[in-house]
Amino acid sequence: MAARAKQIAAHLNYPKGLLAGQVAIITGSGQGIGAEAARLFANEGAKVVIADVDSKKAHEVANKINESGGSALAVPGDITDARYINELVKKTAEFGAGKIHIIVNNAGYTWDGVIHKMTDKQWETILALHNTAPFRLVRAAAPYFRVKDGAPRNIINISSTSGINGNAGQANYALAKAGVTGLTKTIAKEWGPQYGVRANTIAFGFILTRLTGAKEAGQFIRLSDGETVALGIPQAQKAGAGAGAGTTQDVPLRRPGTATEAASAILAVTSPLMSYVTGQTIMVTGGKNM
């Protein structure tokens, strides 16, 4: 207890950043919330590994961080591929001189469909991406988290209001994001007592990303078999949704959140300023569903 108190006291002024000396993996960090989180983490002194299926974007984010005086490494690949996860952990440990302190399981997308029309492939793809992949990454990184070196360790799993309240047309995504909460709490209970690992879930509401943009913009994800999944919300659906998805009618702040605001929440929960918070689901929604 005394050692922990001294550690916290030593960080009170954070002259080298909130995450100084820490090594972080952020999945899905080639763009959007993940890229912003990587930038903010690097600004706070962390060495950041950019994990994204889009190699070009991953390297662009890493290069920008390095050019700005930060420290980043791009390790692109498909997070649903177990072989890639092992490579990601290995390269991160090498980059971090044998240390890994933070995992942000952020990678994800939606593949919507009403229950009676949803295919097995839609179902299994989304669960593999949002549940199996984060579990495999945490399991692979276990040797770097189940240690007693006095350093802070954090795992942040990204969820959604769909996982809290459900959402029509998103049975697969809602189940997957609800499952994230159970994984988070289990990590907190298993790795907290002996190793001091904190694990928290952050559930986002309406944040401006590819997933909430106009479907007509043509954004898509290409699966490993070549099939494409269109991203975004059709404008006609937004127009007729009233207080539904993709609108701000039921958001007390009456606006969507930005990727920077979402990433800032990840940084805040990971930082020593929230060192006594674990096993929680933090709602970042502008007040929606309060």
> Could you state the CATH homologous superfamily?
NAD(P)-binding Rossmann-like Domain
- End-to-end Cα distance, whole Å, is 35 Å
Beta content: 15-25%
Output the helix-strand order: HEHEHEHEHHEHHEEEHHE
Question: Helix content range of the residues, please?
Answer: 40-55%
Overall average residue pLDDT: 89
CATH class group = Alpha Beta
The rounded Rg comes to 19 Å
Q: Give the biggest sheet.
A: 7 strands, parallel
* Total helical segments: 10
Keywords: NADP
InterPro entries: KR_dom, NAD(P)-bd_dom_sf, SDR, SDR_fam
Catalytic activity: a (3R)-hydroxyacyl-[ACP] + NADP(+) = a 3-oxoacyl-[ACP] + NADPH + H(+)
EC number: 1.1.1.100
What features would you describe in this structure?
By secondary structure, the protein is an alpha/beta fold. It has a single domain, classed as Rossmann fold, CATH 3.40.50. The protein is 42% helix and 15% strand. It has helices at 2-10, 32-43, 55-67, 82-95, 120-140, 142-145, 161-165, 171-195, 235-240, 259-270; strands at residues 23-27, 47-51, 71-74, 102-105, 153-160, 197-204, 220-222, 228-230, 281-284. The strands form two sheets. Strands 3-2-1-4-5-6-9 form a seven-stranded parallel β-sheet, sandwiched between helices. α2 links the parallel β1 and β2 (47-51). It starts with a helix and ends in a 6-residue tail after the last strand. Mean pLDDT is 89; it is low at 238-244.
